[in-house]
Amino acid sequence: MTKQTKWFNFECSTEKLSLPYSHQIYCHTHELPLTWDLLANSNIFLSKKYLEALEKAAPSNMTCHFIGVFRGNELVAIALSQFLDLNSIDCYGNKNQVKHLSLKNYLFRKYSSRILVMGNSMLSGQNACAVSGTANIPQVLHALSLAADELKAIFKNKGIDMHLTSFKDFQATEVGDFKMPAFKDDLRFSVQPNMVLSIREEWKSEQDYINAMSKKYRTQFKRSRTKAKGIEKKELGLDEIRAQENKLQELYLHVASNAPFNTFYLPKHHFTVLKEKLQSAFMLVGYFMDEQLIGFKTMISNGDVLDTYFLGYDDTIQKEKMLYLNMLYDMTAHAIHNGYSKIIFGRTALEIKSSIGAKPEEMVGLMKHSSKIINPFLPLFFNYLEPKTVWQERNPFQTSSQ
Questions:
Q1: N or C: which end of the chain has fewer CB within 10 A?
Q2: CATH number for the domain harbouring residue 80
Q3: The pTM is what?
């Protein structure tokens, strides 16, 4: 189920399919099977090196487990789970702590604050699991369902009752594979779309990208670049990231604390550890003015796909210098210059991302409440608690009439 893995079987013998499927839960990355990375080879976010970084620098309210699915003794699928305790953080952000949210906060914390995510809540897209091309998909999903049940029992033994269990971020075409008894009571849901920019083959330079825009958006590009004069950009190495940890955290929290909803906050050493583990695949670019760090963006190379990660900036300077829009243009230019096929921009700031050419891709998840009384009403409960975002999609590129 990685970007290069299909949801169907091939080269499956009757003998192989007759073998029982089982699962194994691992608490630490050093316990993972030797063949783990053979399945993760097309998705860096399931690789041992990324999971090692996550284990070492996960948010304080997150507990990760790693799951192997076996056919007999053969590892045929790998997966990531994350337990999130949302009671320990301010989910709604500082600016939203107002009286009209008191009921919503109460319901949220009492009935949906302890969540088991089968997937990665820190990313957009299908990074939950990778499956061998010879594996039987229904049997893999059944094994992962049993793994989720075992994880809930593990937490219950520690005095933690899970509210929700969610399988996160699948393509609409993949959700049909969940039509089995284990998932019959799960809510299929879709939140904000994943914004993705496909890099056209004819774009060999940033100028080619600009030339494809309509006049209005070429003007927007030129204006943003003019506003950014005086700002210097530099990709930071490991020692520089470590030296700037305090400032990076300050700038990151400027952005994160103003988001409408958060399920975690990154620890201060998160970017340092990612650089240590992923090396050149993790890029942190600092934006400086008068030799002072005023913003940064991060990107992760995932095969021929560029995933944008977290960023931060001084909000007062951001507005004056159109810093965020310039970061989006810079990430697009980086993708073009380095031959990526597309950029995953994630599911925030939808309208401004569409203004630089990103298109929305619907992602579907499955969710189940542990209470048999609440679960039938989960659609109403979910719609009440989920923050709503109204936005208008833009198209910056020229049409045939322009």
A1: C
A2: 3.40.630.30
A3: 0.91
